[in-house]
Description:
The complex is a heterotrimer. By secondary structure, chain A is mainly alpha-helical. Chain A has one domain. Helix content of chain A is 89%, strand content 3%. Chain A contains 2 helices and 1 strand, in the order βαα. Chain A is rod-shaped, with a radius of gyration of 63 Å. Chain B is elongated and about 75 Å long. The model of chain B has no long low-confidence stretch (mean pLDDT 88). Chain B has a domain of 54 residues: F1F0 ATP synthase subunit C (F1FO ATP Synthase, Up-down Bundle), CATH 1.20.20.10. Chain C has one domain. Helices cover 74% and strands 6% of the residues of chain C. Chain C has 7 helices and 2 strands, in the order H-E-E-H-H-H-H-H-H. A two-stranded antiparallel sheet of chain C has the order 1-2. The N and C termini of chain C lie far apart (56 Å). The mean pLDDT of chain C is 86. Chains in contact: A-B, A-C, B-C. At the A-C interface, strand 1 and helix 1 of A face strand 1, strand 2, helix 2, helix 3 and helix 4 of C.
Amino acid sequence: xxxxxxxxxxxxxxxxxxxxxxxxxxxxxxxxxxxxxxxxxxxxxxxxxxxxxxxxxxxxxxxxxxxxxxxxxxxxxxxxxxxxxxxxxxxxxxxxxxxxxxxxxxxxxxxxxxxxxxxxxxxxxxxxxxxxxxxxxxxxxxxxxxxxxxxxxxxxxxxxxxxxxxxxxxxxxxxx
Amino acid sequence: xxxxxxxxxxxxxxxxxxxxxxxxxxxxxxxxxxxxxxxxxxxxxxxxxxxxxxxxxxxxxxxxxxxxxxxxxxxxxxxxxxxxxxxxxxxx
Amino acid sequence: xxxxxxxxxxxxxxxxxxxxxxxxxxxxxxxxxxxxxxxxxxxxxxxxxxxxxxxxxxxxxxxxxxxxxxxxxxxxxxxxxxxxxxxxxxxxxxxxxxxxxxxxxxxxxxxxxxxxxxxxxxxxxxxxxxxxxxxxxxxxxxxxxxxxxxxxxxxxxxxxxxxxxxxxxxxxxxxxxxxxxxxxxxxxxxxxxxxxxxxxxxxxxxxxxxxxxxxxxxxxxxxxxxxxxxxxxxxxxxx
Lengths: 176, 92, 239
């Protein structure tokens, strides 16, 4: 076996030997590296897929929770609005009640006062009438110097009284 | 004049002329032979960059395709290189 | 170092060829190339054994550093190389071949970074051999997916085009495929050798080799592998 200088692009059996060597390397690497590598990649992919699935479910759950919470918030808001409305209505109603009651009271007091006043006036008028009658009788006695028989002049007196009454009433009315 | 030239060329043999021709041919071969692939690869890369600028998400596939295209374009330059190598190192 | 450089420069474009005489046959081999490619293979095997340990470890919540790097590497391998196959299942099936090819060529290219060693891919025997292997494999898969009829259709579909097709697909394709890698690596080798021999006082050998070697080696390995993917994919693709 002697080595001499040949040209760089000479082809010889090195080609075949290198191919055999490459084949051996291929077989060895397929067993040593690529099989575990594929297994590893598959495992990792599975892991990532499971993680992704877990993340997705938790995200979905979170989304559901958010929806639920929003719904709860919405109902709570609605309720609070309703409560406020009710309270306002109640307050208004009680206010109206109080107003109405106060007005009734006032009206009642006013009516009482008016009726009492009328009663008083009637009583006064009756008194006045009686006094008129007496005074007329006394005046007439004195003018006639004798006793007037009530029975005789009753009609006249009544007439007079009625007239007086009218005048007095007119006077009272004007005064008011 | 002719005599002077003959004297000056006296040391130049035919083998020397062959050597000169080999070197010249190798240089010309490589120089002219790489003009076309140079322009071609310029085109390929320019268009690949254009496309990448337009669609940056396609960068990976575009890059491999660009390399394949460059390799195809380069083929003539490789042949020129082969011829140059043969001229320089193999041809007697 | 200097002597070695001088020898390399003197014999630039040449290689040592050993001849075995076995019986009547004279078997010629390049001992240096075989030694270098064996070293590259052993480096790949060591890397594989190292990665195997990381792969065997249980997957935990947080991957350790090797596992993280492995994830990124596998992702890149999947997206940049195997993703170019038209069917994903086929890409997974081709993973061992494509991955081994890439690692082998990468290790071979990066061997020139180590002082005193050269890239075995600077020998056309290696690269053309791999290119021929790819040619054979692409035709194997062509026959497997489309049958012998598919093969005939590929080459004789318009009969008058067949000489060009045979020339371009059976001759030019492996030639350009193999010589692309060889030419790039060899040209880099020539360049670096001349630089080192002529400018030795001014440049740091390792630095120069690293500048040329790392990127070039990676890109060339990637290009060879992706072209392999493209050729095999062309063979299995349904029209």
